[in-house]
Design a protein that fits this description.
The structure holds two protein chains of two kinds. By secondary structure, chain A is mainly beta. Helix content of chain A is 0%, strand content 55%. Chain B contains no helices and ten strands. Classes of the chains: A mainly beta, B mainly beta.
């Protein structure tokens, strides 16, 4: 059983605050780490797919880093907006694997 | 269509009835996945297809669950003799590659409620 853990489980921030979440995953047999955003009543949408240790990816105000040796990834949101309110999921793909194993998600609520 | 389509979007059924959930993946996507999310829990892997084959069925929670895919396109997840613990959102996703570097494209899910 692969353990993919996300923290915190939920987070309330004010509009304009910057925030970050953590995803921890097994450091052995690493192949890829995915981040998805899941808004209520919509489908999960990919943010980043990361494969290399030290990877940093950015999309607008959202960025992510990856440390495969210690088994963690951070997702950062700069200047949170109400439309950023969603559940953020990370998922781990192990080498020679055939599926993504998801963490429990971090639910972000941004108050105007 | 341009995205992954799932039907029905909502299904309420009585315990003991059979249900079928349908997924239309993005055209040309060879890999197709089924996940579910029960209330308060994370996404749980059920099964994946590479083309029309399902090499690993170990994620299916019981023998009441089955899935098939035809024409490297539409997939159907069937739950026989539904139980209340089957209540969940069932998500389908497709990918242009099987390997983990390809992002998954998800449908909006089928919400199943078993009374």
């Amino acid at each position: 059983i692969l353990n993919v853990e996300q923290s915190p489980q939920s987070l309330h921030v004010q509009e304009g605050d910057s925030t970050n979440f953590t995803c921890s995953f097994p450091s052995s047999n690493f192949y890829a780490l995915h981040w998805y955003r899941w808004e209520t009543a919509k489908s999960p949408e990919a943010l980043f797919v990361m494969t290399l240790n030290g990877d940093e990816k950015k999309k607008g105000r959202i960025s992510a880093t990856l440390n495969t040796k210690e088994g963690y990834s951070y997702l950062y949101i700069k200047g949170s907006q109400p439309e950023d309110s969603a559940t953020y999921l990370c998922a781990f793909w192990k080498s020679a694997g055939n599926m993504l194993t998801f963490g429990g998600g971090t639910r972000l609520m941004v108050k105007p | 269509g341009a995205g992954v389509s799932q039907s029905p979007s909502n299904k309420v059924t009585e315990k003991g009835k059979d249900v079928e959930l349908r997924c239309d993946p993005i055209s040309g996507h060879t890999a197709l996945y089924w996940y579910r999310q029960r209330l308060g829990q994370g996404l749980e892997f059920l099964i994946y297809f590479q083309g029309n084959s399902a090499p690993d069925k170990s994620g299916l929670p019981s023998d009441r669950f089955s899935a098939e895919r035809t024409g490297e396109s539409v997939s159907t997840l069937t739950i026989q003799r539904t139980q209340q613990e089957d209540s969940a959102v069932y998500l389908c996703a497709s990918s242009s590659t099987l390997a983990g570097v390809g992002e998954l494209f998800f449908g909006e899910g089928s919400r199943l409620t078993v009374l």
